[in-house]
Design goal:
heterodimer, A: mainly alpha, ABC transporter involved in vitamin B12 uptake, BtuC, two-stranded antiparallel sheet, 4 strands, B: alpha/beta, Rossmann fold, six-stranded mixed β-sheet, 10 strands, globular, binds adenosine-5'-diphosphate, binds magnesium ion
Chain lengths: ~300, ~240
């Protein structure tokens, strides 16, 4: 029982982070039918920007811990969103009318660029977030002591997802994003400026990804320059689980993958944690490429 | 009102339209006829700005539009119900209609009024307003596509093969609605393969053949023309 509750809460917290990153993959795929291979690196960039604000700049020393985390999160979202916007302008938009393979190559190039840029600016060694940035407390739940930080990460990601869900389904701009994902040509006939919709999606996705980067820094305390690869692949798997292009699917897929990993690590072996992700990815692609909700990806890569 | 002058379009090396000139006066109902692959849809997509012409120009009420982006063209008052209807299947009927009014979002009261008008014109859509539009029948989807295109209060409405794949009775009712819309003051360009019905409805007609303008004139003249009768009306 103890293991079960600890792993459930841990899995959901980590899964919430996967889900935030997965949303970036799925939203871009939705409107462009393109996997943004640099998305994981924008996530890493977010983690490092957070590191600069919290550690190098010592934000907490000026405004206190709670405000520091809020301000840091907001600023990282703005900067990551801006990086996503520039990425789209430079690496994707000029190739809008070229074949798919050019866009994939450009995406891979952008990924390598970001990774190296991060390494040059921040170095190749591990970097640490300030210890105890969230007070090292525990909360009692079902007879178990759950770290406060875990609750914090889980609640934060769920709140962000609810806001995004509301935005996509209830606002005019959100409807324009959905329409563009369903049928770009028809959306243009409605008078929707699809080019701006694409730019917006390249801002929102990386903003959420960057925020997830800060959350990883806070949750695990350590970041490194190629963390974008592993997290990127996991979040991509989460997006596939939910059916790529499907926004609620990415949320669900992230949480599910977090749980599967946590239980696999606890009940099978810790060494299997990452392997489990790839087994899930391959299984889904083979057995149900449309994801648990819909949309097909294998031939669109 | 709308002037296409010497418009040429090609997809890659393949030419789809060659020096096409079309004029539409305010209030007219003009039909464009032609076999499959003649370039009818290309013509409408070029007017809407989704396809760019290689040469020539398009003016709408004096404004040059062939260099504008598609959403700017909608704002000027040209909307389209495209071939194959292309309703947003996973969205409800009401959401589809509201997307049609995307450029009118600054005027919520007028949008509500417009919605009521569409629902009076197509009571079936009102009954199904909260249903996913992908679950509608073909005829209902066509009504939705037309209603959606009307939501932006267009001055020029482009209709691409609204009769495609529909039962004769439904076609008849949709054609009557098109006439009503035209008589309410909306200029209409109707693309059709159902030449007979379209010619009976229209004021004037253009006939395309593999990207070339073959014939133009008052609809009645084309109905009486032996060549048209033989090729497009199945009269031998
Ligand atoms: N997206 C496209 N890419 C390449 N060729 C196209 C495309 N759309 C249409 N064509 C070609 O252009 C020509 C005209 O097509 P179209 O305008 O759809 O004709 P119609 O609507 O009269 O059937 C056809 O030869 C068609 O194959
Ligand atoms: Mg056509």
């Amino acid at each position: 029982m103890e293991v079960f509750i600890q792993q459930t809460t841990n899995g959901l917290a980590v899964g919430g982070i996967y889900a935030l990153i997965a949303l970036g993959y799925t939203m871009v795929y939705g409107v462009l039918k393109l996997i943004n291979f640099a998305h994981g690196d924008l996530f890493a960039l977010g983690a490092y920007l957070g590191f600069t604000l919290l550690v190098s700049f010592g934000l907490a020393g000026y405004v206190g811990m709670v405000s520091a985390i809020l301000i840091c999160s907001l600023m990282v979202m703005v900067f990551s969103g801006l990086a996503g916007y520039l990425l789209e302008r430079v690496a994707y938009r000029p190739l809008r009318n070229s074949d798919r393979i050019s866009a994939v190559v450009s995406a891979l190039g952008a990924s390598i660029f970001f990774q190296n840029a991060i390494m040059l600016v921040w170095g190749a060694q591990y970097r640490s977030y300030p210890a105890g940035i969230i007070p090292n407390l525990t909360i009692s739940f079902a007879g178990q002591n759950i770290p406060l930080i875990r609750i914090f990460v889980l609640v934060a990601s769920v709140v962000i997802m609810l806001i995004l869900y509301f935005f996509i389904n209830r606002t005019r701009i959100g409807m324009a994003i959905r329409a563009s994902a369903i049928d770009q040509g028809a959306a243009r006939l409605m008078g929707i400026d699809v080019r701006s919709v694409i730019a917006l999606v390249f801002i929102i996705g990386p903003a959420l990804g960057g925020l997830a980067g800060v959350m990883v820094g806070i949750y695990y305390g350590q970041i490194n320059f190629n963390m974008g690869q592993m997290y990127g692949l996991k979040a991509f798997t989460a997006a596939i689980i939910g059916g790529i292009g499907n926004i609620p699917g990415a949320m669900l897929g992230g949480l599910l993958l977090g749980l599967v990993e946590a239980f696999g690590a606890a009940y099978i072996s810790l060494a299997w944690r990452d392997a489990i992700t790839f087994i899930v990815l391959i299984l889904i692609l083979v057995v149900r490429p449309t994801g648990i909700l819909r949309e097909r990806v294998a031939e669109k890569l | 009102m709308l002037e296409l002058k010497d418009i040429s379009v090609s997809y890659g090396p393949v030419g789809a339209l060659h020096n096409l000139t079309i004029n539409v006066a305010p209030g007219e109902l003009v039909t464009i006829l032609g076999a499959n692959g003649a370039g009818k849809s290309t013509t409408l997509m070029t007017i809407s700005g989704l396809v760019r012409p290689q040469s020539g120009s398009i003016h709408f009420s004096g404004t040059r539009i062939d260099t504008l982006r598609s959403h700017e063209i909608v704002k000027l008052g040209i909307t389209q119900a495209p071939e194959g209807r292309r309703v947003f299947g996973p969205l409800t009927v009401r959401e589809n209609l509201l997307l049609g009014a995307f450029t009118r979002s600054g005027h919520p009261r007028e949008v509500e009024k417009r919605l009521d008008w569409i629902f009076t014109m197509f009571p079936r859509l009102k009954e199904r307003k909260d249903q996913m539009s992908g679950t509608l029948s073909g005829g209902e989807q066509q009504m939705l596509a037309i209603g959606r295109a009307l939501m932006a209060e267009p001055r020029l409405l482009l209709l691409d093969e609204p009769s495609l794949g529909l039962a004769p009775l439904i076609v008849k009712s949709i054609f009557k609605t098109i006439k009503d819309i035209n008589q309410a003051g909306v200029t209409v360009i109707l693309v059709e393969q159902n030449a007979k019905a379209a010619l009976k409805l229209a004021d004037r007609a253009y006939v395309l053949e593999v990207g070339h303008l073959r014939m133009e004139g008052p609809a009645q003249d084309l109905l009486d023309d032996p060549m048209v009768q033989k090729t497009y009306l199945g009269v031998s």
